[in-house]
Amino acid sequence: MPVCIERVHGVSIAGSTMVSMDVCIVSARRPQLLSITVDSFKETVFSNFVIQNVYVNVDPVFGSEEDHEAVVSLIRKQFPTATIFEPEAPGFGAAVKRLWSATTADYVFHLEDDWITLRRVGEEILRPFDDSRIQQVSFHTADQNWDVVVKGHIHAKRDYFRPFGIKLPFYRTVPKFTTSPSILRGGFARSAAALMNPAHDPEKQFYSSVNIGLEKLARPFRNFIFSPEGTPVIRDIGREWREAQGIRKIITNATSTWSV
Fold first, then answer.
1. DSSP character for 202?
2. What is the structure's pLDDT at 253?
3. Residue 230: left if φ>0, alpha if ψ -120 to 50, beta else—which one?
4. pTM score, two decimals?
């Protein structure tokens, strides 16, 4: 499936041009975490852009029905015109596929319900898109095992082949796209969503040999790690929450499950 590289249409406000984008939020039934996340990103990031549409997926996981209603109420208060998906069964891959497919803007801001920002971020985050190969600009996270000073800003992994069951490295690398907070070209996000298998972890499908069609789509392109000072710009607050609840994330055959 071809990737649609779309032109950016700015919106003039007070003599300046601000870029418009759609926002996608993957949420569980965790209203306290979601409130912290939305407040953080609205203040330091979203205020520097024109938000065209907001799409939120609320999965029935981790909390109660009351928590679910609290999440929906919070979204309605913060984003009155948001489109909210409330599936009957949880599924991270299905949530990402559903959200990215619904978008229409030139850029898509992908977010989950358990992150905070560490600095203000404006339109400088879009500069890497001047390179047509860049289809995603992801935020450098405090938990990311990636030193941009040593490894650079292009997030990739060594490719391997396995003749007779023996794991041998290729000289080439493959791009690592992510579902951590990031901005994607809208056309790429929608093309990727069309190929996603909802049963698998979405980011693993880009490079784990479980979705060859999606890997083929992504292979010519790049994910740029946004890290202006070579230091993290966001932090994961979900890990602390999971540890406090005794919840472990288990990945088997590129599929994520949660164990209490």
1. T
2. 64
3. left
4. 0.86
